[in-house]
From TrEMBL:
Pathway annotation from the record: Nucleotide-sugar biosynthesis; GDP-L-fucose biosynthesis via de novo pathway; GDP-L-fucose from GDP-alpha-D-mannose: step 2/2
Domain of life: Bacteria
Protein name (Swiss-Prot/TrEMBL): GDP-L-fucose synthase
InterPro entries for the chain: Epimerase_deHydtase (IPR001509), GDP_fucose/colitose_synth (IPR028614), NAD(P)-bd_dom_sf (IPR036291)
Site (Important for catalytic activity): S110, C112
Pfam family, one: Epimerase
Catalytic residues as annotated in Swiss-Prot or TrEMBL: Y139 (proton donor/acceptor)
Organism the protein comes from: Ectopseudomonas toyotomiensis
EC category: oxidoreductase
Gene Ontology MF terms in the entry: GDP-L-fucose synthase activity; isomerase activity; NADP+ binding
Annotated NAD-dependent epimerase/dehydratase domain residues: 9-231
């Protein structure tokens, strides 16, 4: 893997969990010419504004980490927002990148692109082979469209636009909103506040039986940079022109009950766990097949236990600033 540290790199979504981790990773590698823009400086939903930004800046690479994200509750409550905003952001950035002559782009998708009952672990080939999980179908369709945008610009215009599909991510700068967040931040906040209130129990949504895979965001950032910087011939050898996305994960999963038990220990909550089976479980299992990524020379290094401890330390330092 070779890197030109002088290249201008635009990280879309640099304030989010994944985008901020990519910025940290690039800086640690010695990249100095990083371009970022806040929502106040650049509205990614505004096609003309995005086009002007790209034409005004000489950009060599783009990490497309900007997205509207959330857990089951948020996806169920705001389906129109999730599909519209994600479609617009990815289309605006990919088209503007092409129009401005940007040859290399990395699009960050999601494991929810795969069918609800896809064979486990989920291979890249499972895309579009069955119905999606209904609770996040609009978001998943937007992410599938992002993959196909990249593939289409590659086929028609000879671009080198790649896609990585992360499993469930967590870490610093996550959204810890009590209702609109993903399972790990929601659970961490619930356990922490139950500990502060000296409650006797914590209620966990669902039966606790679904199995999930979790990847620390710093591992995700490292994988993203690795895939972006692979030589074109190496990348193409391990992918296919019509199937260009790569799964990113640990290849290891656990039940939600096991996650809750680990979280209880990390946070130091001494009460009981209660599972509310009336709440939706989502897909029964979501485990990524990461053999393609490993063949490209990358493997996750942060264990779930270690990652949760690191995340909880960040959470404690920033608890007073969290939303909601």
């Amino acid at each position: 893997m070779t890197q030109d540290l002088s290249q201008a790199i635009f990280v879309a979504g640099h304030r989010g969990m994944v985008g901020s981790a990519i910025v940290r990773c690039l800086k640690a590698l010695g990249h100095q010419n990083l371009l970022t823009a806040s929502r106040e400086e650049l509205d990614l939903l505004d096609q003309n504004a995005v086009r002007r930004y790209f034409l005004a800046n000489r950009i060599d690479q783009v990490y497309l980490a900007a997205a509207r994200v959330g857990g089951i509750h948020a996806n169920n409550t705001y389906p129109a927002d999730f599909i519209y905003e994600n479609l617009m952001v990815e289309a605006n950035i990919i088209q503007a990148s092409h129009a401005a002559g940007v040859q290399k782009l990395l699009f960050l998708g999601s494991s929810c692109i795969y069918p609800k009952h896809a064979e486990q672990p989920m291979k890249e080939e499972a895309l579009l082979t069955g119905p999606l999980e209904p609770t996040n179908e609009p978001y998943a369709i937007a992410k599938i469209a992002g993959i196909k945008l990249c593939e289409s610009y590659n086929r028609q215009h000879g671009r080198d636009y790649r896609s990585v599909m992360p499993t469930n991510l967590y870490g610093q700068n996550d959204n810890f909103h009590p209702e609109n967040s993903h399972v790990i931040p929601a659970m961490m906040r619930r356990f922490h506040e139950a500990k502060l209130a000296n409650l006797s129990e914590v209620v966990v949504w669902g039966s606790g039986k679904p199995m999930r895979e979790f990847l620390h965001v710093d591992d995700m950032a490292a994988a993203s940079v690795h895939v972006m910087e692979l030589e074109d011939m190496v990348y193409r050898k391990n992918t296919q022109p019509m199937l260009s996305h790569v799964n990113v994960g640990t290849g290891v999963d656990c039940t939600i009950r096991e996650l809750a038990e680990t979280m209880k220990r990390v946070v130091g909550f001494e009460g009981e766990l209660v599972f509310d089976a009336n709440k939706p479980d989502g897909a029964p299992r979501k485990l990524m097949d990461v053999s393609r990524l490993e063949s490209l020379g990358w493997k996750a290094t942060i264990s779930l236990d270690n990652g949760l401890q690191r995340t909880y330390q960040w959470f404690l330092q920033n608890y007073g600033l969290l939303r909601g």
